[in-house]
Write a structure and sequence with these properties.
about 675 residues; alpha/beta; seven-stranded mixed beta sheet; five-stranded parallel beta sheet; 25 helices; about 15% strand; elongated
């Protein structure tokens, strides 16, 4: 054992280790008491029995190293240096809490100490940690990201996806599995065919070891070895700490799945009693030292409770704060140069990516087949040769893992563009998109942001059948914390991507597959495009046709057909599906007094239903007819061309719906 690996067990150090563990235990005992008094609500997961892991790992870290925790994270936060008063206030849900009262027990965040929060999704923090480490790898920052998780997480796909990426890309991550033998109430042997968790990590060629997680000195020694290895090699390290939680999974848990005798047996070798007894027997400390620690911590806890009790509730008026970041001023379009170039929609997207990467070293692209292959739809062809494999990253087929890595890299300050091959595949990453990207700003009280762009192909028309052809952008437009774009024109495909990359929030861009080959001219001076406004593509007076994405040009064609029948239709291109531009929609409807919404999503629960409801709420007395909708038929998209065409809006169905509405 080298000097860097060996703990220095002098008096000051052993007292510090013991104090860390007692502090965690006493704090949580008080939390359990407050829970029974209904001062703390919701789920409360206690760390009782596992204190040696936080106490052994975290003090060895540098201040600049990052921590991603799990929902049992009170001990991690306290040892990291998050003030006990702010943690207790967060448990109460008070505005003075470390997350502004918005996260609660399972979501403690603290930017000042590089504490990237607890995560209530089992395994959900693993991709985030991988992304934080990826950012450090790409920028050359000498940091380590430590990710804590329980044994239950090893059954999640995100565990395997992240470990694979970490080893594949040589990411400086210390994975710490707190193996307490139970995933909620199910024993390890009941849910894992291979119960040797260390072996799972080793199968990815990650240096791995198992340590007694009830022995704080052993944990610290293992951590020192791990950190020394990571800092030397830049590669990940896996540390399995075998431990046991003495309390139930959460305070809701009746704990019927294990015998009391089993718990008592483990308590006899608990980390505090074990270490404290050894120290006393070897005269390294004395009873009065323990008494002093107890008294000091009791006083700190009393102060923390008083702080929480005196704390304030965030005003209801601030409810919608920290959903989105500071919004940029509206973009003023550049004056046209008069010179235009012809290009495809595909080329416009590529130009936007290329120019963004050339102008900003923080921008990089990753996704399935985006590099050597050039992208499934050839959007990124040639970019790897131009920018190299570090900034054009081919990923495994692990949507949740690499999307989560993009979230982590964005939270660390980079500007990732993640490409998901098709909208249907994005559902494999929905957990990361919804539960992390869309929520981390809110749950952290505005401390962390995710300036991430996710691009994906959407829509039918290529005879790719049901698993590659749906239009699910309306689903994503339902989620607060996201911005959702559907550019249809060459100018928007290029300019909206630029704006999205600079946005402080996660932006999802849906590119309809039928637009990639579409050609058009674009002014050479065309620049960034506002991503908060709809646009009137055709002025009209008789009916408002409201659409977006792949249906825009069908709708414009339908408007031309209607004009031949004397119907003057106005066409609104939504462009941005979240947030919806109500002002442009309502101004149009107030003028035409009729509205037809064209949406390639299914009718039931669709974006068109939301728009229709808003029109009824805001423009009811202006309407001369009920709002009509032209949507996808209620079937999975079929393969045969004639059935595929019949399943989504077409020019004829738009024209027929408008004529029926007008009684023509």
């Amino acid at each position: 054992m080298t000097v860097i690996e060996k703990p220095h067990l002098n008096r000051a150090h052993v007292l510090e280790l013991l104090a860390h563990m007692i502090r965690i235990r006493k704090f949580e005992d008080k939390c359990a008491e407050l829970y029974t008094q209904q001062k703390i609500r919701g789920f409360l997961h206690l760390y009782d029995g596992e204190e040696a892991i936080a106490a052994g790992v975290i003090p060895v870290l540098r201040d600049t190293d990052r921590i991603v925790a799990t929902y049992r994270e009170h001990g991690h936060a306290l040892v990291r240096g998050v003030s006990m008063s702010s943690v207790m206030a967060e448990m109460y849900g008070k505005a003075e809490g470390c997350s502004g009262g918005r996260g609660g027990s399972m979501h403690l965040f603290d930017a000042k100490t590089e504490f990237f929060g607890g995560n209530a999704i089992v395994g959900g923090g693993l991709p985030l940690a991988g992304g934080l480490a990826l950012a450090d790898k790409m920028t050359g920052d000498d940091r380590v990201t430590v990710c804590f998780f329980g044994d239950g997480a090893v059954a999640e796909g995100e565990f395997h996806e992240t470990l694979n990426l970490a080893e594949l890309w040589d990411l400086p991550v210390l994975f710490v599995c707190e193996n307490n033998g139970y995933a909620m109430g199910t024993a390890l042997a009941r849910y894992e065919s291979q119960t040797d968790i260390r072996a799972k990590a080793a199968s990815y060629n990650i240096v791995s070891e198992t340590v007694d997680g009830m022995d704080v000195v052993a944990v610290e020694a293992a951590t020192r070895r791990a950190l020394a290895t990571i800092r030397d090699t830049g590669r990940p390290y896996f540390l399995e700490c075998t431990t046991y939680r003495f309390r139930a999974h959460s305070m809701f848990d009746a704990q019927l799945y294990r015998e009391k005798s089993e718990i008592e047996l483990w308590r006899e070798k608990g980390p505090i009693v074990r270490f404290q007894t050894w120290l006393l027997e070897n005269d390294l400390i004395h009873e009065n030292d323990v008494s002093d620690i107890d008294a000091r911590i009791d006083a700190e806890i009393a102060e923390a409770v008083a702080f929480a009790e005196a704390g304030t509730w965030e005003p209801v008026e601030d409810l919608e704060e920290h959903v989105l970041g500071p919004q940029a001023p509206e973009i003023v379009p550049k004056e046209p140069s008069g010179q235009t170039v012809e290009m495809t929609y595909r080329e416009a997207v590529k130009q936007a990516i290329r120019e963004a990467m050339a102008q900003d070293d923080r921008v990089f692209l990753m996704g399935e087949d985006v590099g050597a292959y050039g992208g499934c739809y050839a959007v990124t062809k040639g970019l790897m040769e131009e920018f190299g494999e570090n900034r054009i990253r081919d990923t495994p087929l692990s949507e949740s893992g690499f999307t989560g890595a993009g979230i982590g890299a964005a939270a660390a300050g980079l500007r990732p563009i993640v490409e998901l091959m098709t909208v249907n595949f994005s559902l494999l990453a929905l957990d990361q998109i919804m539960n992390t990207a869309a929520t981390i700003r809110h749950m952290s009280g505005g401390q962390f942001s995710v300036p991430l762009v996710i691009r994906m192909a959407t829509g039918a028309g290529k005879q790719l059948a049901a698993q590659h052809s749906h239009s699910l952008e309306g689903w994503y437009a339902h989620i607060p914390g996201l911005k959702v774009l559907a550019p249809a024109t060459i100018e928007d495909a290029r300019g909206m991507l630029w704006t999205a990359i600079e946005d402080p929030d996660p932006v999802l861009i849906f590119e309809n597959v039928m637009l990639y080959n579409r050609t058009g001219s674009i002014d050479t001076a065309a620049g960034a495009v506002d991503i908060s406004r709809a646009i009137v593509r055709r002025e009209g007076s008789d009916v408002s046709l409201i659409t977006y994405g792949g249906s825009l040009f069908k709708t414009l064609e339908a408007a031309d057909v209607l004009a031949s029948s004397g119907i003057n239709a106005e066409v609104i291109d939504l462009r941005t599906l979240r947030p919806l531009d109500d002002a442009t929609i309502m101004a149009s409807v107030a003028k035409t007094r009729r509205a037809v919404i064209i949406d390639e999503g299914w009718r039931s629960g669709s974006l068109s239903a939301e728009i229709s409801a808003r029109i009824m709420e805001q423009c009811l007395w202006s309407l001369d007819a009920p709002v009509e909708r032209v949507c996808a038929r209620e079937v999975p998209i079929p393969y045969p061309k004639h059935l595929e065409d019949a399943s989504i809006p077409q020019v004829a169905s738009i024209v027929a719906t408008v004529k029926a509405q007008m009684g023509v």
